[in-house]
Specification:
Double Stranded RNA Binding Domain, two-stranded antiparallel sheet, disordered C terminus, alpha+beta, 37% helix, 17 helices, 505 residues
Amino acid sequence: MSSSTSRISTSIVLGKRKAERLVLHLASSPEPSQTQSDSDFQPPAFNHASSSKTSSLIVVNGQLVAHTKKKYMCTISGCSKAYSKPSRLEEHERSHTGERPFVCEMCDKSYLRETHLQAHTRSHLPESARPLACSQLGCERRFWTTQHLKVHQGMHNGDKPYVCTTASCDEAFAKNHQLRAHICSAHAPSGSKSYLCEYDGCTKSFATNQKLRTHSKVHDDKRYTCLHPSCVATQSAPIYFATWTILQHHNRTVHPPTCTHTSCNDRKFASHHGLRAHLKLHEERAVEEELEDPDHGGDDQSDGEAGRPRKRRRGGELGRDWACEMEGCEKDFKSKKAMTTHYNVTHLGRRDFACAHPGCGSDFGYKHLLQRHIAKVHSSEANLDSTGSEDGDDEHEEIAEKKARPAQRMDIDFITGKAYNTTAAARLASSTAMRCPHPRLPFAAVSEDNNTGSSGVCAYVFSRAYDLRRHLLKEHGVDAKKDDVNAWVVQAKANLGRREPLAQQ
């Protein structure tokens, strides 16, 4: 019995190399009559045709795909790039992440690839370090690459590869920037730059190609899309917008910022900044209500011995971190701007809002006061007569007082109060003001403290009920009801109009 061995060639299946196999062939008898060749005992030949179909498939990112040298594919959604080496794929992935690990030590510029850094580093070397020199007599230019050298030598030979594509123009140039300059000067409107926008109807031009590419996005009608849930749910296809401005206008008009608080009834806002500021008020109110709730250990918010509830300030009490620094002023505010405005108007006497009506010299510290003044004082006489409100009368009297009031001077009469008494007497004589009725008040009032001032007649004169209430509270410690004071002032003004003496009862 004889034996022989044969080697079966290896094959590639699914990207993996199979191990080599050795086949042992045995001959049953050496009889000449029954000679048999080794081929009789060989196994069936390996069917390469049947395996070629299998070997043409490989596994890429867990999927069976057709065989290709670029089997390292980018896993970023929407990117179909593929590479033959993992290192090239890693370099490509940096374009998605923005990572630039290769930094120049001389100028801090960074790059995605090491080859880009090496090419940049050569820019810091002198021209004498460039290995490739121009062979043209009298030319001392040197280059880093053969491509740059070949282009330069073409200039010596008169090569002009850049031909103008405009019809009936046969101009040709050695460099691309020369061709662009020719197109701008000969075939474009005056003042055009090197890179022209080719969009139909657009006449803009730019100095660099990068700026042109950025501008070309403007002509993309599907550049922006609305991702609001209501638009996505109701529309079968996304809604696209050509510019960011149009998208923002769509969001403001169709999807305006809305307060979801039940007490606001879907109140709309012009911007998200306004909505955030509004929601902050809801949060502060919730905290204040919890602090005021006696069941949760809240403080009693009564004012004084009368037990009346304390008046709520606009905007609440929380967040008032900016206090006026003027001595004796206890005002506090929620922003530095509000505190500065208060200081300028109240303590420095600034009046930046002046009435532009001819013959009216009124000025105000706040814009809303000027608007109220214009609406009430400079409206038509019919509107003034129809309203007949005491506030309108107060406004007229205040204007008359300002016109009749002489300029104040820091003299001895002003310091001692004699000037005020003189002015007050003149106003009383002209029936444009009334004297403070303290201590014989003709309406119900509550004394806030025991210090009620002098028992004599008060020299303060006023023309508005608001001024009287403030004066009584500050100077005499008397808190009078607003409605009672307003009713008494209206009656007192009516008496002044009829030239009847004011009864001090």
